Amino acid sequence: MVLTGVGIGGVAWYFSPQALQLAPDHPTYSLRVLALRGNTVEVTRTDDTMRPGTYSLQWPAGGRATLGAILSSNQKGVVRRLTGNTQGLKAGTQVHFDLFVYGSPAALHLSYRSINVPDPLGPMPAWYVPGRSSTWVVLVHGRGMSRTEGMRPLRTLAGLGLPVLDLSYRNDVGAPASSDHRYHLGATEWQDVQAGARYALAHGARRIVLYGYSMGGSLIESFLHHSPQAGRVRAAVLDAPALNWNAVFDFRANQLGVPGPITALAKRVVAWRLGLQSLDDVNHVRPGADFKVPTLLFQGTGDTSVPFAANAALARARPDLVTYVQVAGAEHTQAWNANPVAYTARLKAFLTRVLR
What angle do CA 113, 114, 116 make, to 5 degrees? Predict the structure, then answer.
């Protein structure tokens, strides 16, 4: 019994930090172009390349082109529409499948500046896209991702005249690190969102819209519950947000076949490592949680990272504040990719209504 207990504790200790470890996003160039014909490309068949929607291929030396509709497929490859500059791309080129489509605001032909946002840990790199409105959007990417995650709706936000501040936060590549070099699931990173809000307010913003992906949603909700600047937030847009970390851990453990007792112990270890009483301290959808502002929430039913049922429950509990857009079959944070036109229409309608 002692050995069994030690074994369970050891597995839990090993499993617990997986969500806290840094995992910066880098191009992998693990796919290969099989053929290039006119405005089509045949690329290695994977679950990603077989997903319908809009994505991009990236190749070394900065090449990037947009992937469109699937035209055909076989056991080895998939043929899709390809638009953009294909210079340097040919059969045999190793490529990266990019969910975020655009590499920077320049790819969208938008004027922007690279700035540093003052933060308690040091200067946080950010992109600033100017606009005529006094309402600024602060973009917050997800775990292990980068500022490019927010490029997909950027043209829409800029088209509405909204200045956009696309933030880095602690432990990002190029940003200051936390003392333990671990993610804190929003429990401390919300202070970096606060730094972004303070920067916006000091540079002409009167109101703020917070826009977050995945773990970025947890940062946003933690900010709304802790920051003195929360009262300046007019609305939030959340894309596949991780708002209930108990549910996320249970969901991922079930996928990995981790037994329930080990999962429960692992969650206790995670909370202990973060200095929390329990993961309920970073659970923003528990009974009694005070949801703050009008919120547009996108999530795909095919999400394999964050259980959509938990966010659907939030939408049912707070229909007065939450506009819920469920996207059939879309993977994690890929609601835009699945149907950019529909996503853009819902985003514009929501922002036009709440900012009127």
Answer: 125
What pLDDT does 289 receive?
A: 56
d(CA 336, CA 353): 20
Of 298, 158, 149, 145, the closest CA to residue 236 belongs to 298
Cβ atoms of 227 and 197 closer than 8 Å? yes
The Cα 145–Cα 193 span in angstroms is 16
Which of 206, 26, 200 shows the shortest CA–CA distance to 115?
200
Q: Please name the residues in contact with 189: beta carbons below 8 A apart, sequence gap of 6 or more.
A: 169, 170, 183, 219, 222
**Nearest-angstrom CA–CA distance, 251 and 280:** 16
pLDDT value of residue 9: 47
Contact status, residue 56 vs residue 65, Cβ threshold 8 Å: yes
Q: End-to-end CA distance of the chain, in Å?
A: 64
Q: What's the average pLDDT block by block, 10 residues per block, for the chain (356 residues)?
A: 44 57 82 95 96 95 92 96 93 96 96 98 98 98 95 98 98 94 93 98 98 97 94 97 92 89 90 88 70 92 92 87 95 97 98 95
Query: What confidence score (pLDDT) does residue 336 get?
Result: 98
CA-CA distances (angstroms) from residue 32 to 71, 76, 77, 97, 331?
A: 18, 11, 9, 10, 23
pLDDT of residue 24: 73
Structure tokens at 254: 């079930």
Distance CA 250, CA 244 (A): 10
Q: State the pTM of this model.
A: 0.93
Which two three-digit tokens encode residue 307?
A: 């259980």
With CA atoms as reference, report the closest residue to 78 among 39, 34, 38, 37: 34
Measured distance CA(234)–CA(102) in Å, rounded: 27
